[in-house]
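worker-03 picked up job from queue 'complexes'. Input manifest follows; two sequence lines, order preserved.
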Amino acid sequence: MITNLLSWTQYLPALFSGVGVALALTGIVIVLGFFLGLLLAYGSVSKVRLVKAVALVVVEVGRGAPLLVLLYIVYQGLPQFQLTPTAFASAVIAFTWSAGAYSAEVIRTSIDAVPNGQSEAAIVVGMNRVDSFRFIIAPQAIRVGIPPLMNIAIQFFQFTSLAYAITVPEIMQAAYFQATVTFDYFSVFLAAAFLYASITIPTTMLVSRLERHLAKHL
Amino acid sequence: MNDPLANADETAPLFLRASGITKTYKEHRAVDNVTLEIDQGEVVSIIGPSGAGKSTFLRCINFLEMPTEGTVSIGKESVAVEPGSRPPSRGDLAAIRRSVGMVFQSFNLFPHLTALRNISLAQERVLERSREEADERSYQLLKRVGLEAKSKAYPGQCSGGQQQRIAIARALALDPLVMLFDEPTSALDPEVGAEVLSVMRELADEGMTAIVVTHEMAFARDVSDRMVVMVDGSVVEEGEPHKIMSDPSHERTRKFLSAVVGR
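worker-03 finished. Artifact:
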């Protein structure tokens, strides 16, 4: 039955086009998600009650609802309101929502992780709040927050496979197409798994190296 | 900002005056109507049992803790806090803080910056000195605390005693009129604490004005010009260190001294 242990590799080229789409989707979502996360983190500690409430609801829904549900809300739900984003745009919106919610939590806890004594030290040397954040708090929070943010990025690269459900031509979509043509499901999806792993495993290793490097002066 | 010194009857120019400082947390009066004056070049030690409000009082002087009530005056600047009235503006607080340096029990150096940058950063951002000027001054200060070799080291690469000496240099870099030391050796081994105390001793000899909250009785006795004993949020005794230590007039002081000196 297994004539050649490496026969599944023949399907890799057919899936490459999906890798580009998955990486593009991940890249856009991570960048947008980070900025949304900053906004939500800032909003969730706002003294304006309405801002705080909105931020908290967006964060809780983004983290609480399954990604697939968010995808369907955007892709299938928005057209009811005469908004018809493309499949790719829908994936960007839904994933950014979720990534933003997770990033907001990482950003908030990273800032909280900087000891109170640091801002006290900045105050007593006369620094104002902006300088204190820019030169003292943010650089330390970034060292704490970068590794978890990168782990979110890795996770969202894997999550892009869900965008298959709304016809985004990413890796899974390409794989499914191949499988329905060849009926070699096992090999085709093995090839897909290999592609995901060949990106996530080195990236994960990179993150743990980076983590050690960043923690050096903390 | 009104200037209480202008219509005060004292003729001697007061350097720092913290008067009627009270800090309450709910029912608890952590600091209860404490007044302290200090002249230029004077070193005052505040001693007393743990929980007496020494550190809280010290932190009220530069408004790291907002006192419930009280006035702090340094030179021409004066900030008053009254219950029920508007809290002082950020600008007023900054004016006081600019004249006051502080050294913490836990050093609080910036871990992501080298020793030199720890000392230079505020000079550049607050005093608007150039990078070269700031670094030059920082290097001189590091030399003064005996750590010029550590200028490129990060705090994590320095011992506790070295970190505290760097923190002292960082505070001095802003040319404060008064230095506040909040139990500067409590987090250190006695041996390492000694190197910090000897730096403080030298600075005192050179005319530094300082308020020191400490449990180092020998240091308090030998270096400070005046000793203040705080118990339960209040000053119970104040005076010449040798006299207080050899002949305390207050029962609580006697109890405290026999506990710490007898060790």
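worker-03 released lock.
The longest strand of chain B covers residues 28-38.
The two ends of chain B are 48 Å apart (CA to CA).
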